[in-house]
TrEMBL record:
GO terms for molecular function: hydrolase activity. The lineage of its organism: Bacteria, Pseudomonadati, Pseudomonadota, Alphaproteobacteria, Hyphomicrobiales. Pfam families: Patatin. Keywords: Hydrolase, Lipid degradation, Lipid metabolism. This is NTE family protein. A motif (GXSXG) lies at residues 62-66. The active site is at S64 (nucleophile), D178 (proton acceptor). PROSITE patterns: PNPLA. Residues 31-191 form the PNPLA domain. InterPro entries: Acyl_Trfase/lysoPLipase, NTE, PNPLA_dom. A motif (DGA/G) lies at residues 178-180.
Amino acid sequence: MLDSWMGRGQKGSDGHDKVGLGSIRRPVIGLALGGGAARGFAHIGIVRTLVAHGIVPNVVVGTSIGAVVGGAYAAGHLDTLEEWARSLQPRNILGYLDIRLNGSGLIGGHKLAAQLEAAFGHVLIEDLPLKFATVATEVRTGHEIWLTHGRVVDAMRASYALPGIFSPVLVGDRWLVDGALVDPVPVSAARAFGAEIVIAANLSSDVFAHGTTIHSHGPSGEVTVAMAPDPVVEPPPPKRGFGKFFSPERTMKREFFGSGGRPGISSVMVDAFNIMQDRITRARLAGDPPDLLISPRVGEIGWFDFHRADDLIAHGVRAAERAIDSIQEAIHILAPASDKAGATIEKAP
């Protein structure tokens, strides 16, 4: 895990990592993975590319889907997550929507949680081979919560619990929801956990026009402003047996995704959340910018396009490849001068 950025380290007779003509204490590298629902599969391509170039993070902090990918990498299950992601089709995704007609979220999240449980089991954060944390938001207080111990699965679920869509998750004595409400790209947390170089992945950097102001808008001519009517839906043909009865779950799924050009519940809530996240991300990154920013061009892919994992992972690979030279240059610059001269220094923790 602590190989030099120049290649896989070899230990000398004194037990220190040796590379080339001298030895290098590589700076502690932190990886901050941002939120973005399905777009987060791009993180898989980013992590794969960084590691393939010998840029191995010592600290990983994730928000929302970034918490899922970061946790999978930290726990050694990135292969499992990638295989599952690439297998998703629209029909599979519907199977994970355990719609609820009561409670504090449209989706109970138990089916998805069961999938995570099967993959990660009872792995604890404190037992992972590197520093890992997820970011969540406490309901009522709005506190930014850094989950640094306990089960990896619980930390993931709390971090991606999109308000109104997923039910809040109880961790300890706090009800937690999506961390993107307070910190969409957790640069500050990665730095607080000891990262000397923070590489951040922002999934909303190419979502254009979110900051635009339309300063003159209204109806043209004599058009009267009115609420759009609900689309007319022809009644389905009568069914036999139990199929003729009203299916709340089927109706809720139809309302969830929308129909007839009218946005569904999910579209309205996610778009609102996406706009808010974009504004918060800009403010947080301006106040505490990462050392290097990776920005996959995934703006044209929707938050619920989980079936496009192949495209998203490829976007992540391309974005990381564009940043490799800059990352290696930054690591080389921050390596202590005495290291470059050939002195032996303890490797980073």
